[in-house]
């Protein structure tokens, strides 16, 4: 009996906390499967502790290495936006195929070994039950909370893909200097509208960008749209036109509050302190500028549409039912004779 009271308390606490941002593409939280085969609390019977174990690991890792939360947030984009949320991002290269992690778009991705830490904690409790794809998505959700962002209830039930999608990564992930029209159309194909794109790029309110992705805005000529004070800062951090690829030279994405997921990103854009060309274009383009202004003014507005866009991203074309597998180890697909029958 006591267990149920606790469960009810925990549930209502979570609802209270999350109500404001439970604005996902699909609002059915009553246990019914959506068209894409995902459902709230998929592991309710098979591994009831799964979501709490993941949340706890994310919190513990965040205490030791704050930048793990940046990685969980970036991962959901790099996995889900490339055809499917299927943890293909996590696969290592094999003799036959190169991993997504090794493509140019993945430059700077880090902390994969700590994702294994989360997976191992889940496997200790429920071996072979929880997919790496769901761990990747839920760790992003929980990482956002560590960074001070909104809590977003998300569905589960994704299964893990068996193939690297490295060959098509560039068709889905825009480059740092892509035109805004291309960026908008790539996201629109996933069901994320213009406002959603502006909100989602607010992820660049945390973390860092290496000089290789920035120097073309500084050398040989300085991009005239950049704030002069920010140019000085960027040149200080990136003193060479051709940065040594081995040197760890980078600029923080949001100099004001680099560790917080907040709307200061939009304030920066309005002050011509956007780091990447794609960032700065959000303020330069008339389609996106109104949303930048609104998000700069209201953190709540930013959080609301960030949570909504994150939900859509997390539901992009998942593998469900008996497609894919439940990987034992996130960086390796299962050997065929050990494929989980669950
Ligand atoms: C037009 C789309 C996007 C482009 C072109 C882009 C590009 C980049 C680039 C070039 C970096 C710097 C990597 C480095 O030098 O280490 C970066 C960092 C980052 N991106 Fe994006 N990004 C995009 C969208 C997103 C989205 C949608 C999210 C999450 C929802 C995201 C989350 C992050 C995070 C958290 C970092 C910091 C990572 C760290 O410090 O480890 N990005 N992005
Ligand atoms: C709740 O589940 C039923 C099916 O059991 C479904 O028809 C209904 O749309 C769901 N409610 C919501 C709000 O999604
Ligand atoms: C974007 O930057 C890359 C270098 O990172 C460069 O090779 C490419 O030509 C640039 N594209 C455009 C459209 O400027």
Automatic annotation (TrEMBL):
Q: Which UniProt keywords apply?
A: Biological rhythms, Calcium, Disulfide bond, Glycoprotein, Heme, Hydrogen peroxide, Iron, Metal-binding, Oxidoreductase, Peroxidase, Secreted, Signal
From what superkingdom does this record's organism come? Eukaryota
What protein am I looking at? Peroxidase
GO aspect biological process, one term: hydrogen peroxide catabolic process
Give the signal peptide range: 1-20
Entry's cofactor comment: Binds 1 heme b (iron(II)-protoporphyrin IX) group per subunit.
Q: Where is the active site?
A: 78 (proton acceptor)
Q: What InterPro entries does the annotation carry?
A: Haem_peroxidase, Haem_peroxidase_sf, Peroxidase_pln, Secretory_peroxidase
- Cofactor(s) this protein requires: heme b; Ca(2+)
The reaction(s) annotated as catalysed by this protein in its Swiss-Prot or TrEMBL entry are: 2 a phenolic donor + H2O2 = 2 a phenolic radical donor + 2 H2O
**Disulphide connectivity of cysteines:** 47-126, 80-85, 132-330, 211-238
